[in-house]
Amino acid sequence: MLRTSDSTDRANPPATEEHPERRADRTSARLLAQRGLFFGPSALVPEDLYSRVERGTARRERDRVALAPGSLVSTNTYFGRFHATYWQRWTDIGEVEVSAVATGTGRLKLMASDTNKVWRIVAAVDVRDGEAVPVRLVGPVDRFVDGGGMWLEITTETGELTVSDVRWTVAATRPVPPTDIAITTHNRVDDCLNTLQALARDPEAFERIRTVHVADQGSDPIESRERFGDIAAALGEHLKYVRQPNLGGAGGFARGMLHATEGAPDEQADVLLMDDDVHLEPELLVRLTAFAASTRHPMIVGAQMLNLLHPGHLHISAEYADPEVLLMGLKMPGALREAYLLGLDDRQLPVNQERRVDTEYNGWWSCLIPAAVIRAIGYPLPLFLQWDDIEYGYRARANGFPTVSLPGAGVWHADFGWKDGDEWQRYFTIRNGLIMAALHSGFSIRRITGRLTELVSHQLVAMQYGMTATLLQAVEDFLDGPEVLWDGSAGALARVREIRKAYPETVMHPMSEAGGEFHDRPVIRAANEPGSETLTFLKRAAYHLTGRSAYRTGAVPAGDAHWWHVSLFERAIVTDMSEQGFRVRIRDRQTALQLGKRAALLLRRFVREAPAVAGRYRAELGRLSSRENWERLYELKN
């Protein structure tokens, strides 16, 4: 049986009827760090990311949960936890206060874990025959430096209990600065309107925002849609919408950053960068702004990415990049990657980022950058897309502004694993990766040329001739120096798209065009990975030079389209990674030899010229990332 104390625990006195963060004097009191939510923003996301019914039955709603007798609901979940380890590491808060309203009979417990997921009870309150009873639980944030978090457990035995209006608050260490949202969009009209609509439908979360700045760079403007008017009316004076030429993600986000940091420092706002095609959880507005307002020193506070097509999976919780080998999105030791957040680990405990893992940067699917950081280091480089967010994060770190990827603050974004690597965007991956290496690495010519040689070699034997041409153009443009960025990379976009038109295998054919081409071919799966990649490549290259092959033709699933497998074919029908179509790769010895010769000459040039070119990029960094340069690109000043 539940026991109800006759006296109140001194460490956890009853809450006043008014929540602390709602007092008239908003400069005092407490800061709302996160809301206790039991259900997602829509039925398209799993409710178990917010709360779990671990025993009995319960009806979960957005801001309340109703338990039947004999039930247990836990918020030891991705969105339900208070990730105390990050708060203790980066802020000076001493405790967190959880307030709620309870009706019925049951118990609320504030739970905590340590770095090894061992749980403990921090505080508990029993409610008996209550009617809208204010409840208050307090937990010290003092044993979480390396890991751990807090959550609620709500239980009933013979009675029913409804808990609502859960608030996690912390002491306000300084006034909360205004925050602007900067969204860039390009012909994703419905996605962008859905994001704006989600903002408008959560007024409590939206209270944290001064302005929503939308830079529309597409040929299909969102203002042309009927529902744009309704959304604009709902957002009112908070919405600032501009049309501009397509300068990529960097150009769209920089426009919002310029707007947020106009005027004197006391007139400026922090800026929350946000992709247009996310499934938004408005709660992240509360969590990112509260955390950023509590850190000891200004720092970038990033939201984490969950996969849109697989909404129970976390993309990555902390990452780093190795630009000398053109790799980004590498998992920090101890971080979660493609983690199934609804599952259990080998100890049958929930999958959470229990140990704190610090990140090197955060993707700009949703990321808050304080105005103080922008004043200190400038704006993004005009890279168009790819590596712009990474470069900015590393530049900030080099100037004393670290980044945190905050668990529990997440958005759903299109799965990276469903994007094919043979697209025009690959140009920017290569070119901008080299620029990143020039700015933020030792710029080892041996490592970089080794990586470029590997990529070209593998692409040629895999019959990706357009991809090879794309890579070579990226390297050539890098060697042209920082002047290639002077037009905001708009010229590069047009150039690379034109180059790729000459290579048929770059075209994805929709399944409606498949016919016998796809369906009548045998599906040939890949064998085990090669024991020696070097020996395997030499064998495949010999096959191509002598006109031999293991298979004349065949269909290759996307997951099996490794270079060492596709290179066995004369003609391969390869499923696109999006699984919405297919590509046809046909061996062309003459094209391969021409591209191989061009690559050899270019790499020799790279060895000779790249060190000096890297110095030129470093010398021009300040000018290229300046406010004046972006104003010139936007033609805001003569």
From TrEMBL:
Annotated segments matching region Disordered: 1-26
N-terminal signal peptide: none
Pfam annotation, one family: Glft2_N
Domain of life according to the entry: Bacteria
Keywords: Glycosyltransferase, Transferase
Limits of the Galactofuranosyltransferase GlfT2 N-terminal domain: 57-169
Domain named Galactofuranosyltransferase-2 C-terminal: residues: 458-635
Compositional bias annotation for Basic and acidic residues: 16-26
Keyword Transferase among record annotations: yes
Recorded GO MF terms: glycosyltransferase activity
Entry keyword Glycosyltransferase: yes
Pathway recorded for this protein: Cell wall biogenesis; cell wall polysaccharide biosynthesis
Family membership: Belongs to the glycosyltransferase 2 family.
Cited PANTHER family: GALACTOFURANOSYLTRANSFERASE GLFT2, RHAMNOSYLTRANSFERASE WBBL
Protein name per UniProt: Galactofuranosylgalactofuranosylrhamnosyl-N-acetylglucosaminyl-diphospho-decaprenol beta-1,5/1,6-galactofuranosyltransferase
Source organism: Pseudonocardia hierapolitana
Source lineage: Bacteria, Bacillati, Actinomycetota, Actinomycetes, Pseudonocardiales
